[in-house]
Amino acid sequence: MKFKQPLLSIITTFALLLSANSQAGRQGINFYYGLGLGLSKVKAVDMMPTADIVFGFEEDGWALEAIAFGSLEAGTDDSSVDTSISGTHIGIAYRTIEKDNSWFKIKVSSTKLDFSDSDGSKDFKTDGTSYTIGYGIRMQHDARLEIDYSYYNGKEKKDPSQNNGLTLKDPVHMIDARYFWGGAPYNGKFTDWNDSNLLYMGGLIGLLESDLGNDYDTSLAYSLIFGVDLSRVTIQGLSIELLLGGSLTADSSLTDPAFNDEYTSSLFGLYGVYRTPGKLYFKASLGYLSLRIEDDLYFANGDFDETIKFTESGLSYGLGAGYKLSNPARLELDIKSAALDVEGFDYDPYVVGLSFLYSF
User: Fold this and answer.
1) Is the CATH number of domain 27-181 2.40.160.20?
2) What integer best gives the mean pLDDT of the chain?
3) What is the pLDDT of residue 154?
4) How far is Cα 54 from Cα 134, in angstroms, rounded to an integer?
5) Alpha-carbon distances of 42 from 7, 297, 338, rounded to whole Å
6) 308 exposure class (CB count in 10 Å sphere: 0-12, 13-18, 19+)
7) Domains of the chain: which residue ranges?
């Protein structure tokens, strides 16, 4: 079965409907701007002091944010050459509901960086994605302070002998303090602590289709589920879930079609999950899945040959439905798929599972 394209279309449409209906109109659109100071660090370069300017538009915690920044020169492994950095971040941010005049923030940005050496001999540019977590404090009604940590890793890789030992595969770490003007407080609809439980856990049993070819049979999958309900501080129905599981032994026939080899799998998943209101509800999941395959190969006479092991990780997404059995318990049926690649071979494994969850 191939669910990837229709599943992506359904989830995209579902997410658009949620964003349009879940919190619309509570805060209104606001414009804000700010200034910041920070430090950036990358391998082979000393700490670089930075300054930046920020512009953004926000509504109900969501924001489109643009940042331009530059740094002073800092020393490199070559004592005769200094390096500076400049660039831009353009990204989507989400700030949680303000409680006691503070909040948390996450952001994903498209980032462009420009490294310039003092002698002009080894300048280069790179672009990629940066990931940000932050914490904010309301200073006045229309002014606030945020502390952000950002992690950046470029798309391209260069010869390590170039650029004073700096390579584009080396991550860049950035810490910034920014002061904003504009933007009304986001108070949202805060759920009472007694309306929902904070933590839940449960188990899943289902089928794992590895999508590694017809040689690989579908296996019986199982998983433990641990979740945190974020309804009290963010969007009603939003949770974070951790999956830890694997599969029982299933057949694979790689060395000889007349003799079945065997494989097992283990999986780790981290997801953001949204559940609609009601006793009978729908759910959508988006996150990360790591899948490990161990394939035991045998000779045609039944003697053991070798074990092939590989682990791949990538974007994972899912769709399902659930039913509340009682206040703390519920059943869910869903499918989760992932887009993975092993040595240039693309495959889309998926798990169809029935889950029992219990809140406490």
Assistant:
1) yes
2) 80
3) 63
4) 15
5) 39, 44, 32
6) middle
7) 27-181, 191-359
Judge contact between 210 and 347, C-beta under 8 A: yes
Q: Could you report the per-residue pLDDT of 249-260, keeping only the tens digit for each?
A: 777 765 555 566
At 163-189, the pLDDT tens digits run 444 445 678 899 999 999 987 777 765
Phi, psi of 262 (to 5 degrees): -130, 145
Gap between the Cα atoms of 92 and 284, Å rounded: 20
**Local confidence band at 15 (pLDDT 50, 70, 90 cut-offs):** very low
| Sequence-separated contacts (24+) of 297-306 with Cβ below 8 Å | 297/254, 297/255, 297/261, 298/255, 298/259, 298/261, 299/255, 299/256, 299/259, 300/255, 300/256, 300/258, 300/259, 302/259, 305/255
The residue assigned the tokens 């879940």 is 22
Nearest residue to 134 (alpha-carbon basis) of 171, 101, 178: 178
- Count Cβ atoms within 10 A of the Cβ of residue 236 and give its class: 0-12 exposed, 13-18 middle, 19 or more buried: buried
Q: How confident is the model at residue 23 (pLDDT cuts 50, 70, 90)?
A: very low
Q: Using alpha carbons only, how large is the chain's radius of gyration in Å?
A: 24
Domain formed by 191-359, architecture: Beta Barrel (2.40)
Give the integer Cα–Cα distance in Å for 22 and 71: 40
Beta-carbon count within 10 A of 113 CB: 22
CB 46 within 8 A of CB 76: yes
Which pTM was predicted?
0.49
Domain 27-181 identical in fold to domain 191-359: yes
Amino acid at 318: G
Mark 156-195 as b/e (b = at least 16 C-beta within 10 Å).
Answer: eeeeeeebbebbbebebebbbebebebbeebebeebeeee
